[in-house]
């Protein structure tokens, strides 16, 4: 049975899952749900299926593979990491990856919260001023490393790449002092299968977020 990844028709929290499966060469159904028209952007397309899939806590994104039915993006990423040897191999590694996972998710989440803010223009300036400090943390960490965990690619790299790329689209010049981050992103984009995927019609760089945001749905 072909696995199914269900999410909105955008990158968001679903794209790291898609990227991981593409990288591992897993064929899957990329089930995408669309929002209704403005101004309500209703979720009827998703809601009419939400409680019919047999998922214990139905939400988007979800992952279904036979009897495995999961929601919650990080739970899905951890499951796939274990299945495809992209996760921790002992308790010490698990502890370190847990921290990096949360740090990578924070980088994405801070931008999401900014873009959904009702005071977007004010929050945008605040966020832009803080970007350097947030990017420097990762630039320092990646010094002398291929990936977040050294020479071995892990599921956290899929989370971090998305967060970095969203931020790059948001304010590219914030990355100019951080060539290590730029090299890391280019290295990720050259990974087998992903290199071809990113230039194919199966991949959409936009939208990044839902239609309710002040930034992130259509390219400026």
Automatic annotation (TrEMBL):
InterPro entries (UniProt xref): Glutathione-S-Trfase_C-like (IPR010987), Glutathione-S-Trfase_C_sf (IPR036282), Glutathione_S-Trfase (IPR040079), Glutathione_S-Trfase_N (IPR004045), GST_C (IPR004046), GST_mu (IPR003081), GST_superfamily (IPR050213), Thioredoxin-like_sf (IPR036249)
Domain (GST C-terminal) ranges: 90-208
Record field: transmembrane: none
What keywords sit in the KW lines?
A: Transferase
Report the top EC class in one word. Answer: transferase
* GO BP annotations listed: glutathione metabolic process
Entry keyword annotation includes Transferase: yes
Any idea what job this protein has? Answer: Conjugation of reduced glutathione to a wide number of exogenous and endogenous hydrophobic electrophiles.
Instruction: Give the protein name, as stated in the record.
Output: Glutathione S-transferase
